[in-house]
Amino acid sequence: MGTPARETFATQVNADLLASVRSLAKAEGRHIQALVDEALADLIEKRKQARPRRHVMDAYDASHEPFAALYKKLAQ
């Protein structure tokens, strides 16, 4: 498997945050690029997990009215 394609982009970051990232990269013997890749991948994964899939929510919504009493008892 080859190396994934890389693309350059520019952005601005809080100076204190960037200093912390630089310090962390130095302490870990890594490039800042590697930490940015890791942070972005973690953010994407976290956001994916934070939202239930639409069909799951649709099924829950459809079941809520007929099973509201059961859900209430389970919550107690």
Describe the structure.
With 76 residues, the protein is mainly alpha-helical. Helix content is 72%, strand content 0%. It has helices at residues 15-28, 32-50, 54-75. The protein starts with 14 loop residues before the first helix and ends with a helix.
Give a summary of the structure in a few sentences.
With 76 residues, the chain is mainly α. The chain has helices at 15-28, 32-50, 54-75. The protein has three helices and no strands.
Which characteristics define this entry?
single chain, mainly alpha, 76 residues, 72% helix
User: Mean pLDDT, nearest integer?
Assistant: 90
Structural class: mainly alpha
Total domains: 1
E-strand count: 0
Report the end-to-end length measured between terminal Cα atoms. Answer: 52 Å
Approximately how much helix is present in the residues? over 70%
Assess the beta-strand content as a share of residues: under 5%
Shape: elongated
- The residue ranges in which pLDDT falls below 50 over 5 or more consecutive positions are none
Q: How many H/I helical runs?
A: 3
Rg, rounded, reads 22 Å
Let me know the largest β-sheet.
none
What is the element string, with H for helices and E for strands? HHH
List the helices and strands and how they pair.
Layout: H1 15-28, H2 32-50, H3 54-75
